[in-house]
Amino acid sequence: MGTGGGRAGRRGGRVVRRLSLILVALAVALIVAGCADEHPLDTLTPAGPDAEEINDLFFPVLGVAIIVFFLVQGAIIYLAVRYRARRRAAAAAAGTDGDESDDLYGDEEYPEQVHGNLRLELAWTIVPTILLTVISVFTLISLVELNKVSAAEDDLRVTVVGQQWWWEFQYHLDGDTETPPDIVTANEMVIPVGQQVPLEITSRDVIHSFWVPRLNGKKDAVPGRTHPWVIEADEPGRYMGVCQEYCGLSHAYMRNYTVVLTQAEWNEWVEGQLVDAVPLEPGDPGYEGQEVFLANCANCHVVNGVTDVNLDGVPDGMDDYDGDNGDDDITSALVAGAAPNLTHLASRTTFAGSIFDLYEDRAKRIPYLEVAERGYLNRGDLEAWIRNAPERKANDADGARGMTAFPGLSDGEIDALVEYLTTLR
Fold first, then answer.
1. Structural domain harbouring 293
2. Can you say whether residue 421 is alpha, beta or left, with left for phi > 0 and alpha for psi between -120 and 50 degrees?
3. pTM of the shown model
4. Which of 95, 173, 325, 396 gives the lowest tally of CB atoms within 10 Å of its CB?
């Protein structure tokens, strides 16, 4: 009997230690989560009407789930305790050590056996059915609200294109997504505050999923199809988003930001983005870097007014922008191979799928429109990315998925290239 009790005690001690480790791990995870940067993936602090709609549905459903959880778990614990087998006491009464396999409990230890209880069975069938029906009705109402588009036909619309492993945003200022975009950016979508912006979400290669949790739920990006969605923010700021559908090697590093500006700031941003870059002449600051760029980068990257990716003898511009360097359908390109449009790279705050800051400390205290002028360039990460991108972010450059390495560029050429990129404002 003593031996059996010792084993049981040791087993109990191991269980307690394991539970303690689990609780400590959970506590550490919560603390680490609380140390996120100023733009966390936070679904509980909505910053737009669509996220508010999701939040208003989430908490009541969570409350119901918690009540059901405690009712079910409470019943299980009660039954386990109330009708637990007292083997040690039964063994003592029988004069054994508790290790034998004989029946030591006696008939009186078992609860009364009952076959069926109509009232209980009806209750635990009808009550959950009613509960789930009510939740389903409110869920459907929320889904209808989330898909409502209040924007006018000629208002801003953005085509969101997922690609391994970054996001492209094509702006149609007149709302016509069947024509070439007016502006193209990568990884950072800039919108005006308080205005609903309809989105058309698609992909060039595999299935992705676009998600900015503080502004709306996720929407899949599927090659060959476009899925409508909307986004709107109640206050200016920068809201982090991610790809929410596993899409390969660097899925975890396929991020994006939605930058929300006041209407006046957004108008100013649009005005600047509509201006093409001007080819530099010998003697201009950045000219040597432009030559390095044209010789090594212009096969993939577009700089409107400077590059000629499709080799038609005319500098690239929005009028003939096809989105994938070869397919005329800008919304349903099916092959990888496109690279971020760099016309106004220096006006953004991140690069490489938004995993690196373009400026030190992400210019947190500098207005978005002033980062190119006042921000301190993150030269170390930018140069390392140019030299060997696959080393900084896993990709499949040989399969036209991700940026290739440039081991042949000298330090001087990379310095010159970085200087040129800083002129792209």
1. 154-425
2. alpha
3. 0.79
4. 95
